[in-house]
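Tokenise the fold.
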Amino acid sequence: MAICIDELKINSNQENEELIFILDTNFEKMNHSLELAIEQLSKGATEEIIKALETVIQEFNQELQSSFGDNFVKLNEAVINLLKWQENYKTHIETLDQKLELSTTSIEKSKESLEIISSKNEDVFRVYTNLEKL
């Protein structure tokens, strides 16, 4: 009977080793499958996050364009109108400058004329005074 127990121990050790080998092999396959699944999930989640970010950025850009686009168009129109006004004002100032020059020249001529008239008037007054004495 001692031989039987030893044989059972040997047989059960061989069966245990075979079971351990089978379990190890299946564990490695399952571990590999889980690693692939995790990798695919991670890759899929990353792609989804990238798509979500792209969508958010596109919506943000559209919102900026609609909000500020109109403002920039209005600002551009205002600048164009300001430039037109500036050009008209420049022309107006140049015209006023010319008229001021003309007025200054006219006043100078009037002054000269008044000085001549005043001088002549003094001469006439002297003659009149002399005539009165006679």
User: Anything to note?
Assistant: The mean pLDDT is 84.
